[in-house]
Amino acid sequence: MKKIKWGKSIVLVSATSIMLALTACGGNNENNKGAIGTTSPAASEAPKEKVTLRVATAYTPDHPFGPAIDQILTEFTAKYPEVTIEKEFLPVAELDKKLTVDRATNNLPEVFVIFPGASTADYAKENKIIDLTEYLNSHIDWKDGFISGALDSLRFDGFTGIYAAPLGAYSTGFYYNKELFQTAGVEPPKTWDELLAVIDKLKAAGVTPMTIGASESWRAEHLYTALFYKWNGTEKAKQILSRELPYSSPEAIEPFQRMVELVDAGAFDKRYIALNYAGEVADFNNGKAAMRFSGSWAVGESTGPNSPQGFGDKVGFFPFPYFTEKEEHKDSWMGGVSDSFAISTKAEGHQKDMAIELVKTLTSSASSKIIIEKAQDLTAVKAEVDPEKSGKLIAEVSKAMSTGKEFAGDVSAFEPVKAANTKLYDLTQAVLVKGVTPEDAAKQLDAEVAKAQ
């Protein structure tokens, strides 16, 4: 879930819509009776022949959604005993590689997770995944259960359909240790200059200001994306796709420069270059750093069973600080729809019926309730959630998101050239560890794009 990719037809999702995931806006009452949604006519009338569904996701036991997804799948096979589910659950990077091979060999699983982005458009172009429009329109309670704008992120230029059902929704911002902030006598910053001042005061108090797993390139790319939107707004990213905005433009270089500014300000300790994501989580949860920039999935990481007892009560959240000289973009956020379920066109007959029924179930209001309460994370599906179960921090994140006006995913998702996309990840990481200058990084990216033209 960490490498969030968006497509050519990006939809900027309103924070008000995303808030619905945590409010009493659940869909049809039938859909709220249990984790299993209402049975489609095709599923109920089909012969009970035995079928196997290969399901490929990143929802491993260690993933925040993992326990909830496992419960939902167990309930599904109990209701439909003729269905055998073969789990192909892998971490995101490994899942990407596996699906690339499966796609090339025409051996895709019947149900698998995709991320809105150019590569997903290619799945549709190659007729590898089915258009869900017909099934959504015939089950309005399912279609209306998604937050506003969520389904639009699964539409692609040149295609009229909806090619997956979204499940994950996310936001990004700063999580902070309230006790360490109190020790340094600081408050959550609202502007970039205030953030730099907070960093100075935390250092003076003997506290490491921030932690980041810089050895994993997606951490740097997420930071670049958040800075890009706060400086340029989300619409500007589309100019990368259209090639109106080269990487050597001032707008694209500025976020790189701000990353270096954080390093030069002493935001991180000396270990950050070699630190991985697990180390980042551990540093923050063990009080070794006062802040971490991350996504809404971090709520479960700081409040779940694997975090220190009671630590979640010490954690607060604030939006990514804005630049006073670019105040018009203060409400531009990195966030929106993330992982979504697609169905392979290889699925036929009762197997296809059950694949559709499974995706309906996984993206139902009842399943969303289970996921939010167990994972303490956001989803793209409306649900009635018990705050005592979901936790106070996810409510704080949701409240902060209500200040946002526009949302978009990774800047890298606007880069259609695979080699340049990969290089963007590598170079944001290189800039963050000061292995290359912002200007040199920009030149290398433009050169990679030029090779493909």
TrEMBL record:
Signal peptide: 1-23
UniProt-listed Pfam families: SBP_bac_1
InterPro entries: Bact_solute-bd_prot1 (IPR050490), SBP (IPR006059)
Keywords assigned by UniProt, alphabetized: Signal
Name this protein carries in UniProt: Extracellular solute-binding protein
Organism: Cohnella herbarum
Taxonomic classification: Bacteria, Bacillati, Bacillota, Bacilli, Bacillales
